[in-house]
Amino acid sequence: MPEIQLSLDGMPLPARPGQTVGAALTDAGISAWRTTRNEGRPRGLFCGIGICFDCLLVVDGVPNQRACLTPVRDGMTLDTGCAPGGPETPTQGGGAA
User: Fold this and answer.
1) Which of 5, 36, 40, 44 lies at 20 to 30 Å from 95 by C-alpha?
2) Percent helix, strand and coil across the chain, each rounded to 5?
């Protein structure tokens, strides 16, 4: 399948047609892309079916979109609200989700 390109906080993110945003993030090794308000605990995919709201992010300027339900599109812009390279940058690898 041909690869399409998204951007996450200004960084390129590859995806495949038919994937959800959450699947593309997980495929890229990103396990958490937001934190809880009070304690700053990492959050990413949890239920994967749109019930829990742990996977929220900004998609093409629209806030509070569920990554687990949002299909990818070429050129899509994803924003976590975290500055690239900052202390709250999305977690790669085996971080808690």
Assistant:
1) 5
2) 5, 35, 60
15's CB contacts (< 8 A; 6+ apart) are 3, 4, 5, 6, 21, 23, 24, 27, 72
pLDDT band at 81; cut points 50, 70, 90: confident
Is the pTM value of this prediction over 0.85? no
Give pLDDT, residue 91.
56
Q: Is the confidence at residue 60, as pLDDT, over 90?
A: yes
Token duo for residue 1: 């399948």
The CATH T-level fold of domain 4-82 is: Ubiquitin-like (UB roll) (3.10.20)
Burial class (CB in 10 A: 0-12, 13-18, 19+), 94: exposed
